[in-house]
Amino acid sequence: MYLHERKDWWKFQYDNDKIVKLLGDVRAKQGLMLGRMTSLGFDFQDDAMLTTMSLELVRSSEIEGESLNLSEVRSSIARRLGIHSAGLIPSSRYVEGVVEMLLDATQNYDKSLSDERLFGWHNVLFPTGRSGLYEIEVGKYRTGEMQVISGPMGKEQVHYQAPKPERVAGEMAIFIKWLNGNTELDGVIKAAIAHLWFISIHPFDDGNGRIARAITDMLLARSEHCSRRFYSMSTEIKLIQKDYYDVLERTQKGDGDITEWILWFLNCFDKALSSTESILSSVLGKNKFWEQHKDVDFNERQRKIINMLFDDFFGKLTSSKWAKIAKCSNDTALNDIKDLVAKGILMKNVEGGRSTNYSLVI
C-alpha cells in the first residue's frame, strides 16, 4: 500500500521527540548563516546569491538527468535581478524559463500558491510542449497514469505508482489550502512535508521533482522572511541522490509515519547550510582579488575568464580553452594570457609542452 492510498493520508504522522533536537540545531545554524551573510555588503551578498541560486538550478536539473550551462544560468539570474556581473552571456529559452520559476518562488515567497501559479511554472519548464522526444501535457494537471520506474525496457522496476489522474485536482486543492493556510507548523518542517506531499501526488506529466524543489525553496525563504538565497538544497540532494530516492520510496511504501523522511530532510538542510562556508570563501576571495587589482587594466575577455576561474571553471586553464570560451583566436587567447602573466595575475604551472596551463596568482 502506498502512502497516498491510506485514509486521510495527508494527515502526516511523525515522532516530534526524534526531530526536535536536530530541528533546533539547524534552525540555530540557519540564523547564524543569515546573520553572517547580511552583515556583509550588498555586493558580497549579490555574488553569493548568484552562485547559490545558479547551483540550485543546475543541480536540480541534473537530478532529473538534464544539463544546464552554469554560465547561462548565472547570466540570466544576474540580468533578471539587476545585478552587475562581468562576462554576461545570452541564455537559452529553457534556461530563462527555469530561472523565471525559481525567482518567482523565492522572490515572491509570501505570495499564495495556486493552480495557476503552478501551471505557469510548468509552462516555463516545457516551453515547446515536449519533454525530450515526447509530447506532454503542459500547464495543466496530468490526465494519465503516472509511475516512477527504472531499468531497461521489458525489465522495468516500478518504484512508485502515483494517485489516479481523477484524484489529482482534489488532492492538489487540499495541498494548496494547507500550504497557504497552515501558519502554526515550523517553516522548515513545513518545507519537508510539502516536498514529500507534492512528490507523492506527482500532479504533472513531467517536471514534478524540479517543481517540488522550487516549492521547497519558496517555503525555506518564507521560513527566513528573506528572498536572498545563500545555500542550495539541490546541490546536497545531488551529492546523495540515491539516498534521496531511497528514502522517498521507503516513506511512500511505509506505514504512514514520515519521521525518517523529515530527519533525512533536516540532515540534508544542515549540510546545505554548512556548504555556505565554502561558497562564502569563494565569494570573499573573488571580491578581494578585484579590490586588490582595481587599478589594473583588463579587457572583457580577461574579466570574464578570471571570474569563471572563481565561479565555475572546470579543469585546467589552457590557451585553447581560453580561445573556445572567449570565442577568439588562439593567438588572441595567448596574448591575453601572456599579458596577465606579465602583470602577475596568472602563472604558468610546472607542466610544459602541449600541456601548458595556467593558474591564478592568489
Please mark out the parts with pLDDT under 50 across 5 or more consecutive residues, or reply none: none
Percentage of residues assigned to helices:
55-70%
- Overall structural domain count: 2
Q: Rough shape? A: globular
Percentage of residues in strands: 5-15%
- What's the tally of helices? 14
Separation of termini?
Answer: 58 Å
Query: What is the fold named in CATH at topology level of the largest domain?
Result: Fic-like fold
How does the major sheet shape up? 2 strands, antiparallel
Strand segment count:
6
Level-2 CATH architecture of the largest domain: Orthogonal Bundle
Average pLDDT, rounded to a whole number, is 91
Helix and strand run: HHHHHEEEEHHHHHHHHHEE
Quick take:
The protein is mainly alpha-helical and 362 residues long. It has helices at 16-38, 42-63, 70-81, 93-107, 115-125, 165-181, 187-201, 208-224, 233-239, 241-252, 259-292, 300-311, 319-326, 330-342, and strands spanning 130-131, 134-135, 147-150, 157-161, 346-348, 358-360.
Q: Would you write up a description of this structure?
A:
- The N and C termini lie far apart (58 Å).
- This protein is mainly alpha-helical.
- The relative contact order is 0.13.
- Strand 1 and strand 2 form a beta hairpin.
- The chain contains 14 helices and six strands.
- The protein folds into two domains: 283 residues, Fido-like domain (Fic-like fold, Orthogonal Bundle); 62 residues, Winged helix-like DNA-binding domain superfamily/Winged helix DNA-binding domain (Arc Repressor Mutant, subunit A, Orthogonal Bundle), CATH 1.10.10.
- The strands form three sheets. A two-stranded antiparallel sheet has the order 1-2.
- The longest helix has 34 residues.
